[in-house]
Amino acid sequence: MVIPKEWRDKFNTNEFILVLKDDRIEFYPRVLNLTKLIDSIKVEELPSDWHELKRMVYRL
What we know:
about 25% helix; two-stranded antiparallel sheet; globular; about 20% strand
């Protein structure tokens, strides 16, 4: 699949994660350095499950 240059530039990466969900395909930028995401989401309380936190970050 080809990802438009505007998208790659917007997320500052050439690596994306492809997720197949039901009848759609979702793309998420692959973030190697999670410190770049500090303060990027607002939450009332941090989830106790690390995987749920990762899902929240990738939905951005």
